[in-house]
Amino acid sequence: MAEMTMVEAIRDAMDIKMGQDKDVVVFGEDVGYFGGVFRCTAGLQEKYGTNRVFDCPINESGIVGVGIGMAAYGLRPCVEVQFADYIYPAYDQIVSEAARLRYRSAGDFTAPITIRTPCGGGIFGGQTHSQSPEALFTHVAGLKTVIPSNPYDAKGLLISAIEDDDPVIFFEPKRLYNGPFDGHHERPSQSWAGHAWGEVPQGHYTVPIGKAAVRREGQDVTILAYGTMVYVAEAAVNETGIDAEIIDLRSLLPLDIETIETSVNKTGRCMIVHEATLTSGFGAELAAQVQERCFYHLEVPIERVTGWDTPYPHAQEWDYFPGPKRVGKALVAMMEEI
Fold first, then answer.
1. Strand ordering across the sheet containing 270-277
2. Low-confidence stretches of the chain (pLDDT beneath 70)
3. Which position among 129, 184, 204, 314 bears the catalytic label?
């Protein structure tokens, strides 16, 4: 085992797959010589050459479009969209081409492309560098959507994504790159050093796409979270003393609904926490599925704690960010309902 940041774990996953499979290629904006704006690809071009790790123009539809063409011809591209906020120009390529290729060709062609992109706020990125658009991709049949919360999962899930024969959208919560974040922005930053989830096996291993993890067992309420919100939920639970079960979804599509159902049927309460906006956020789909499957076990209505229905503000970032105070207040209110 080795201690790694999420940046190092993601880089290690790409390094391992490029070493194993010459068909794996990495490209995007500034990923080659510079090593990526967050340094996730640092050193890969020097090791594997400019034919396998290379820079692209600022053209996300072109980056993803080229990747889909490569994938159709048998390569396994792992491309980077520099920020999730910039993925929209590539949306048509992702939805109309990558997600449909297996279906429209009756299985003759597949699109084994992985699209990595940093998401979420907490770094004063403002409205154009802080978005969480994951719900837009869970709506699309043919895509898989993954969001790790720690270095161990990031490496194992990214290896699984690169090996997958279908397109995977791999969101990376940028606030977690160098350490866990519990939402207390006024406190010093934490490091992955010494953290249990910062211990990463060396060499090849996988974390299965479509399997959630129970991060904390509890009896009073089930909290469904992913990415940075896993740590915010932990902080809220510790500060309120409520015995909550915290489930880290890890994969939004496919969704591990069985683990969710088992937990909610046990606790009788369900809270959903995510950083994206409330309306039509992924929490709405979670709430619908929990309601359908767990109706007779629910003691109170399902609660959602999310970002607000506004562009992500710069000056009021911490009023937008669903921090432990807001999550904790909702937890207490939920427990007081009969």
1. 213-216, 244-248, 221-225, 270-277, 303-307
2. 338
3. 129
